[in-house]
């Protein structure tokens, strides 16, 4: 183990001198308590390192020990159902009310193991050698580390074991032996190997109408979610974590609030996954680096999270990773860069911000895994632009590397219109690949109706500008009709409260039914208008209230009610008389 | 505790702003606290902010005026800044670094705590759920405050934020509970003596002075000290909340002065300035203050923060309110125009928000229909504002009948709901809210269920009310 002496400290960054060999990205232990850190630069006999914990009390002359390996995390069965810090150290109640530096916690726990191989079997890196069961998380597989190939010489029988016990031995052709436990280490900054990338297969269903029906995200895709403070990023991320149809959720709270993490921990165990019927927490892993925790660990937490996500993907799972917020990660990068005296670029961010963002989002994919299954990692990153200004570097660079862009709008949020995704400022490049999905799910007209909805909302914006000058009543009936329908699309379809027991999740069937119903109303009212019915008579139909509230009133278990509503709609329209308003007056 | 009382003299090589540059001839650690002693034996606290083999930088937490290179001694404590606190801190007036200035006895040091605090283990946090009734409709009904929340007031120079904060501190209570449930910690950061005095008098009048603690860093005190004042105060607050099991309400005014001090000190360190000259780490720095609010499992006490900041040129996108808003759990925004129209409290409802409201309102917490009523009022008022913009261009003639009703609703909402002469209970606020909604057509109230409309708004009831 190499050793160095500190000769300079400022905040989370230190310099140390050594005669011995250190490597870039090598993980280190610093000072008496053994604070965790990482080498980020080497210059002659001087190393520069960032420390992931509070450096108070550290002094020049103290020792720095190299670990010989890059900053890595331990991947195994104890991950799901738990909460970790940015370096994947479990945070538990036993550690007390406050997080102290230098924690080296390990949870002592046994996991069920069932072998899937027998002595004599040949295996390659990434293969499955057993199944694992844990009390808190969903069942998983035990994977052979990607770098190990050879013949199984011994494998333990089924039983309950701690996750670091040797349960399988593999011998390489050159005679070298590997003792495998349920866990293996993997360096966080290095993507895990796969067999091959796959073409996008289908959507990651989120249960949110404005997302699935207007701006869908592919499974294995990447989405950015920019929005000023209080526009609903966290609520939306949490909503996706609850209801999206991924097998596993990795939720990383990067530089955000402690109460939000506590809220997730409080709420998830009480909720049920609508797809599997199991407890939501079983498929969830939380990484919490709150805003008041050390900044450098915030930078690492994003990599930790995506490494865990890849590990779960490698078992053949569909993984969704929510990162809230990538801006805090970028700021951590900026802060460390500043302490290193690097030349600042745009808004003080280092010049490599863009390539780091690209590296991160590149790790999203649908893949054939080494074990011969298919899996995916879908990345959804929140962005918190300073002053709500979307032209800042983190937003603009992220936009280049993501294909789905959900803009959260502060005017909508202020009117308490949620989710505040702006239909005209958002887009999805995954649309074409998802047409088949909606076709197979009884909604062949999806693409057409989607286009109609969007164009109505575009017209709305234009017409409202006009109405501002000449008055709404002065608009011709057809244009008033457009305004009415756009309003209806907003209220009846796009608005969806995350806190409503009935409407927080919307299945594809229900989405399709609602979309069709609104479309039906648009067509019917157009016809009525054509045949001379006054626009006021249409806009004062009592049935409109039923449509506006259908999300709240018609739940998943009552989808046929939409058909009934559609019939009542036909009936109501058939009763509308042409030109009645004038006659009655 | 370790008190490595090493001292060093004659090692200062340079003095620049609040910073002393010293030769490193003692073995001390980063962030260690020091005392700087001048020729007159006057003590000034400080701390070590950077270190290398040969030298170190001490940040003096008071003015450096009068210090010289040769006759200044520095004593090292061998540990980070600590604050010795005991329960007898209640009722006391302290300066910005926790020293009594009320001529009373010294405070007993039952516990010595690091002023920087530590992050609360997220697993140990309890979700804040206890609704606090402040007496203001715009807060209680529209943006509810709960125990353990951090809810700032975004204000502007000359607006009545101090009065609002003092009234919250004086009359905040749990539903059905007594006022004065709270220990109030008032933290003056770079404000005038008048502000501190006003607050003190208000608490005195309500007989609450004996469970109030005041930390005063006044405008005339040094700006480096300003960076410590909230930390001393929050250390006391954490002690009272998590050791003494008290419910603590911390009112800090004015966080803008804190940020100015941060900018000043950062500049003197020669750091690269970020947006508008504020340091790039201002978000993280503010977070170490605001994140100290919360509830902890198994602790009887809670820590609630109501920080006040004045938005420079009333600009909510300015880095100070912007970064604060990204950290706190909502904000109450005050508006100059409402103030000009004599509306008190001049709360600008639309940009105001309480994120923890959802956890502490509704069935089992306040009233079943509380969240829906608040949502409907929000939706209606935002439509009213929208119509107001329309009307400002083309006058009211071009408006439809419904739009005209909304326009009127907006006026009445401000005059009769936002504006209030005296404290309202939540129930009274809700009644006022329902009454306003009755003036709108039922077909426009789509955030309310049929049942809610039947119970609170139906025609029958309208008639009854008119009749009586
Ligand atoms: N889909 C939703 N349904 C209902 N309410 C919502 C929804 N989204 C947001 N809200 C409301 O808006 C508030 C703010 O949302 P949130 O905390 O997610 O904002 P944010 O964008 O994450 O802000 P910040 O950047 O400061 O973290 C929530 O507390 C909630 O009251
Ligand atoms: Mg958030």
UniProtKB/TrEMBL annotation, chain A:
Any one of the GO CC terms: proton-transporting ATP synthase complex
PANTHER family (UniProt xref): H(+)-TRANSPORTING TWO-SECTOR ATPASE, V-TYPE PROTON ATPASE CATALYTIC SUBUNIT A
Name listed for the protein in its UniProt record: V-type ATP synthase alpha chain
Residue ranges annotated for the ATPase F1/V1/A1 complex alpha/beta subunit nucleotide-binding domain, each copy included: 207-428
Domain ATPase F1/V1/A1 complex alpha/beta subunit N-terminal: 9-64
Function: Produces ATP from ADP in the presence of a proton gradient across the membrane. The V-type alpha chain is a catalytic subunit.
Family: Belongs to the ATPase alpha/beta chains family. T3SS ATPase subfamily.
Leader sequence segment: none
GO MF, any single term: proton-transporting ATP synthase activity, rotational mechanism
NCBIfam families: PRK04192.1 (NF003220)
Organism: Solemya velum gill symbiont
The protein's Enzyme Commission number: 7.1.2.2
Annotated ATPsynthase alpha/beta subunit barrel-sandwich domain residues: 108-189
GO biological process: proton motive force-driven plasma membrane ATP synthesis
Residues reported to bind ATP: 227-234
HAMAP family, alphabetized: ATP_synth_A_arch
Automatic annotation (TrEMBL), chain B:
Entry keyword annotation includes Glycoprotein: no
Pfam family, one: ATP-synt_ab
Zinc listed as a keyword: no
A molecular function GO annotation: hydrolase activity
CDD domains in the cross-refs: V_A-ATPase_B
Chain segments annotated as transmembrane: none
GO BP term, pick one: proton motive force-driven plasma membrane ATP synthesis
InterPro entries linked: ATP-synt_VA_C, ATPase_F1/V1/A1_a/bsu_nucl-bd, P-loop_NTPase, V-ATPase_su_B/beta
Span of domain ATP synthase A/B type C-terminal: 360-455
ATPase F1/V1/A1 complex alpha/beta subunit nucleotide-binding domain location: 135-354
UniProt keyword list: ATP synthesis, Hydrogen ion transport, Hydrolase, Ion transport, Transport
Annotated Gene3D superfamilies: 3.40.50.12240
Function of the protein: Produces ATP from ADP in the presence of a proton gradient across the membrane. The V-type beta chain is a regulatory subunit.
Similarity section: Belongs to the ATPase alpha/beta chains family.
Name of the protein in its database record: V-type ATP synthase beta chain
Organism: Solemya velum gill symbiont
Gene: atpA0B
